[in-house]
Amino acid sequence: MNLNRVILFGKLKNLSPQGFIEVSISSEMTPQIFREEVAKVLSSINPKFKGISELNSSAVANDSRIIFENEPIGTSHEYFLLPPICGG
Amino acid sequence: MNSPHTLVKIIEGPVKAHHIIQFLSHPSHGGQTCFLGSVRDLNHGRQVVAVSYECHKVIAEKVLNEIITEARVKWEKNLCAIIIHGTRRLQVGELSVGIGVSTPHRDEAFQACRYIIEELKIRVPIWKQEHYIDGESEWLKGHELCQPPQGTALLLATTKSKAIPCGEDFSELVHPKNPTS
């Protein structure tokens, strides 16, 4: 397990004052396990965090693409948690 | 004939309309269409003074290029397209997005331009935070980007199932109890 930086976007940035957190990550994790690990860290740093339900609508991405829900997240310099979008 | 060209850019600050217009010049193309999206001053009854945009730049530009490629397959292989999306805090009236398309004939240009903005809205990782006149701010709710398990995309596209949120059990989609023919 390595300690990796997870960048938060959109409303998720409100959960961490820096806009990112450090999480122990294995490249074999699926996105759902990844979200659970992120939830553990957020619970420890932010008393207002309501739990994994706040992350379940967010996609997981590595440096280059969004990860399918049934595949390992793989190795990446950084990881990204992408809440529902609304560009344009 | 000139080869089709494409420009996709995520920029800091507002989009300039003339950049879109200037790009759309091709000797074989008789139809050019543009879509310009701007920050408006009212949303759900609240007075908006500005909107902050942020994005995952690498994935956003990659997906925008994919969308243009899809438009070429659907309508015109020589379609030219430009997409510029602004980020950071934009004031009311400033342009957040500019899309331009040129094709030999107008019908394809209209359809492709509409396709690009609609796909952008649901596929490109861009978020916006509205700032209101009372000093409050709010991130807007939107469309989930979660990718269903590989192999289920076609099934999802051919059934009338509701959108599948991230973290749900996909096993029924991978191995449907009542597969449709």
Number of structurally distinct domains of chain A: 1
What's the overall geometry of chain B?
globular
Named at the architecture level, the CATH assignment of the largest domain in chain B is: Alpha-Beta Complex
Distance between the termini of chain B: 45 Å
Describe it.
- The complex is a heterodimer of chains A (88) and B (181).
- Chain A has 88 residues and is α+β, with helices and mostly antiparallel strands.
- In chain A, 17% of the residues lie in helices and 23% in strands.
- In chain A, strands 2-1-4-3 form a four-stranded mixed β-sheet, covered by helices on one side.
- The longest helix of chain A is centred in the middle third of the chain and has 15 residues, at 31-45.
- Chain A is globular and about 30 Å long.
- The termini of chain A are far apart.
- Chain B has 181 residues and is an alpha+beta fold.
- In chain B, strands 1, 2, 3, 4, 5, 6, 7 and 8 form an eight-stranded mixed β-sheet that branches.
- In chain B, strand 7 (126-132) and strand 8 (137-139) form a beta hairpin.
- The longest helix of chain B is centred in the middle third of the chain and has 18 residues, at 57-74.
- In chain B, 31% of the residues are buried.
- The A-B interface holds A 9-11, 14, 31-32, 35, 52, 55-59, 61, 63-71, 80, 82-88 and B 37, 53-56, 58-60, 62, 85, 96-97, 117, 120-129, 139-150, 165-167, 170, 174.
Offer a quick outline of the entry.
The complex is a heterodimer of chains A (88) and B (181). With 88 residues, chain A is α+β, with helices and mostly antiparallel strands.
What labels describe this entry?
heterodimer; A: about 90 residues; Ubiquitin-like (UB roll); four-stranded mixed beta sheet; 4 strands; globular; B: about 180 residues; alpha+beta; Aldehyde Oxidoreductase, domain 3; 5 helices
